[in-house]
Amino acid sequence: MVVGRIRAPHGVRGELRVEVMTDFMERFAPGSRLFVEREEESRQVEAARPHKDVMLVKLEGLDRRSDVETLRGRYLLVPRGEAMPLPPDEYYEDELVGLRVETAAGEWLGEVVEVWWTDANEVYVLQGPYGEVLLPAIADVVREVDLEARKMIVTLLPGLLPAKDE
Predict the structure, then answer these.
(1) Rounded to an integer, what distance in angstroms lies between the CA atom of residue 142 and that of residue 144?
(2) What is the CATH number of domain 93-154?
(3) pLDDT-derived band of residue 95, with 50, 70 and 90 as boundaries?
(4) Contact, 60 vs 46, CB < 8 A?
(5) Are 141 and 107 a contacting pair, CB within 8 Å?
(6) 118 confidence band (pLDDT: 50, 70, 90)
(7) What does the pLDDT read at residue 23?
(8) Per CATH, the architecture of 2-81 is what?
(9) Distance CA 151, CA 131 (A)
(10) Which whole-number Å values give the CA distances from 98 to 43, 125, 126, 149, 163, in the listed order?
């Protein structure tokens, strides 16, 4: 699971400028372990501190700027089994992608293929008989999420669906 994205090196001692992509800042606590995308072994966090709009993170074994130059754009990850529990009615992206989306009347609208985060709310991107549909993740629209049944029940607001033949 993604917890951050490496933007760039910071300084000359192997620190990374990391865009935080988690609500759980303890993921960056010294002593915790993170995987760098495309690396087999996790690395221990030696130090982390907020800096402007990023976290500066120092990982074990990366001690020079040259060690981290090639990591730009890579994600920092934790195993799915180490996911933090979420409050009721909140879900991780990988739990939502692939859900079958239907109206309360049983009309199939498509499958969740992606989740976008916006300042206002999340948006579920559906692919189905209407083509691509952008569904706001708000209480007036999303009525039920059943992870066991892999299904989401929604109430459509006017204008959310294009005509099927468009």
Answers:
(1) 6
(2) 2.30.30.240
(3) very high
(4) yes
(5) no
(6) confident
(7) 86
(8) Beta Barrel (2.40)
(9) 19
(10) 31, 11, 9, 11, 23
